[in-house]
Design goal:
About 45% of the residues lie in helices and about 10% in strands. It is an alpha/beta fold. The longest helix has 20 residues.
């Protein structure tokens, strides 16, 4: 594995990276929702935002995907919770939704979990390149809630280094870009505009072989 982004791919990877960043301004919300993935940084940032007073309650949501079963054998949400506890988030401030197997499940099952509570606003905390898809999914499945997207504020190179596998980051970026269109067509998410520069960068990365996460 290499954690250094090749120069010949950098511009296209950066284009996709920038596209998925919703650039939402953080503000206090009723709940922080940590979306399960292979990236433990989601739980780290959720804990940081909790301690900063951005929300009084955290929900971690996620079972396993093929990309996470080895790293988080007890489930993504369970491992996220354990990490947040280590970072000082009180146990009574954390809820766990351990069944979700995709982003749609993350939103729908978390909404169901919080049904008895008054929730008007949420911060969706995800890996950086999941922001746009998480936003589009939430607006489709939970349209009445005010949603803010957030991720650890890392530059692309620092994020790649933190994951330790440049191929994984690029293939996930490419896969999430495809899902913006496909999931809207399937009714899973609202439509999002894809600028031509993003579509061109996506096509070049697919042609370069980063297609393992394509549907």
């Amino acid at each position: 594995m290499t954690a250094t982004l090749p120069d010949d791919l950098r511009a296209d990877v950066q284009t996709l990276w920038d596209y998925h960043d919703m650039r939402h301004e953080l503000r206090p919300a009723d709940v922080g929702i940590g979306l399960g993935s292979h990236d433990l940084g989601v739980a780290t940032y959720a804990a940081e935002l909790f301690h900063a007073g951005m929300f009084p309650l955290v929900v971690f949501t996620g079972a396993n995907a093929p990309t996470t079963i080895e790293r988080f054998p007890r489930g993504e949400a369970v491992h996220y919770r354990e990490h947040a506890l280590e970072l000082g988030v009180p146990d009574d401030a954390i809820l766990v939704e351990p069944e979700a197997r995709n982003t749609g499940d993350n939103i729908a099952l978390t909404r169901r979990l919080l049904k008895a509570r008054e929730v008007g606003s949420v911060v969706l905390i995800s890996r950086p390149y999941q922001q746009r898809r998480a936003y589009a999914t939430c607006k489709k499945l939970w349209p009445e809630v005010d949603v803010i997207c957030a991720s650890r504020p890392l530059p692309l190179d620092d994020y790649v280094e933190s994951i330790g596998d440049v191929d994984r980051v690029i293939t996930m970026l490419v896969g999430d870009t495809q899902r913006i269109t496909v999931y809207a067509e399937r009714g899973f998410a609202i439509q999002q505009e894809i600028p031509s520069r993003v579509a061109d960068a996506y096509d070049r990365l697919v042609q370069a072989g980063f297609s393992k996460r394509l549907l």
